[in-house]
């Protein structure tokens, strides 16, 4: 029986050791990459933990905030500054931020919190939406077109459903789509005449050459009905809980 020379055995052993060391190094590098990705995702998730309530004045944002945070409905509540509270569901938590609805402070407050937003809730008065549709659509378009929130889930919350004259969510969606189409045309003309740099330029909403539809934009926009007065906010709390 032939015997393997001692030098050949040593060479084979050396190659096996090198192979094992390479395998260990590759595994270590892959493990490091996986851990880095996990940490990065956690940091991003932690950095975006705010659920922002926005919309026009008198839509009921602050009443919704009070019900979600303190389980009570205020008789009158007009915010002139933002309200911030820690929302908890089981062992998970996030911040609920109520942005004032007055146009003089709304945009400034929104700019302060938009980069930490994990979800956007645009509150609509279901009773007066037809009368105020131009202002509602204009404010909604501004939020949806902001480059900072393009990755955020978006909820249009149709409040005051306890009132008999309230319009349903699907009717409100249709009304807003028609008005958003007009707002988009008007804003497009203004941008052409004024011009903006690419960093601050609002995102074009919808598809070129087609009437505006919420299904055509980047965000996943959902429409829910609610009543802050009757504390019918399960749709909202469930929506937030899914993202915590």
TrEMBL record:
Segments traversing the membrane: 20-41
GO terms for MF: GTP binding
Membrane topology: Single-pass membrane protein
GO cellular component, one term: endoplasmic reticulum membrane
Gene3D superfamilies: P-loop containing nucleotide triphosphate hydrolases
Keyword Transmembrane: yes
Keywords: Endoplasmic reticulum, GTP-binding, Membrane, Nucleotide-binding, Receptor, Transmembrane, Transmembrane helix
Domain of life of the native organism: Eukaryota
Subcellular location: Endoplasmic reticulum membrane
The keyword Magnesium appears for this protein: no
UniProt family annotation: Belongs to the SRP receptor beta subunit family.
Identification of the protein by name: Signal recognition particle receptor subunit beta
Organism annotation: Bactrocera dorsalis
């Amino acid at each position: 029986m032939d015997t393997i020379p001692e030098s050949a055995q040593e060479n084979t052993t050396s190659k096996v050791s090198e192979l094992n060391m390479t395998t260990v190094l590759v595994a270590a590098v892959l493990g490091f990459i996986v851990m880095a990705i996990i940490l990065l995702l956690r940091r991003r998730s932690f950095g975006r933990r705010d659920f922002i309530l926005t919309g026009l004045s008198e839509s009921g944002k602050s009443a919704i905030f009070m019900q979600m945070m303190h389980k009570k409905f205020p008789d009158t509540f007009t915010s002139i500054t933002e309200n911030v509270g820690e929302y908890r569901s089981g062992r998970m938590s996030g911040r609920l931020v109520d942005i004032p609805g007055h146009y003089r402070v709304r945009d400034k407050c929104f700019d302060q919190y938009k980069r930490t937003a994990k979800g956007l809730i645009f509150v609509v008065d279901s009773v007066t939406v037809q009368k105020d549709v131009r202002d509602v659509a204009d404010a909604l378009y501004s939020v949806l077109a902001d480059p900072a929130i393009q990755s955020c889930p978006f909820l249009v919350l149709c409040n005051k459903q306890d009132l008999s004259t309230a319009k349903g969510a699907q009717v409100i969606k249709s009304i807003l789509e028609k008005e958003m189409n007009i707002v988009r045309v008007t804003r497009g003309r203004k941008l052409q005449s004024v011009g903006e740099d690419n960093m601050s330029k609002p995102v074009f909403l919808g598809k070129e050459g087609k009437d505006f539809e919420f299904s055509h934009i980047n965000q996943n926009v959902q429409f829910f009905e609610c009543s802050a007065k009757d504390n019918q906010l399960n749709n909202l709390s469930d929506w937030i809980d899914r993202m915590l």
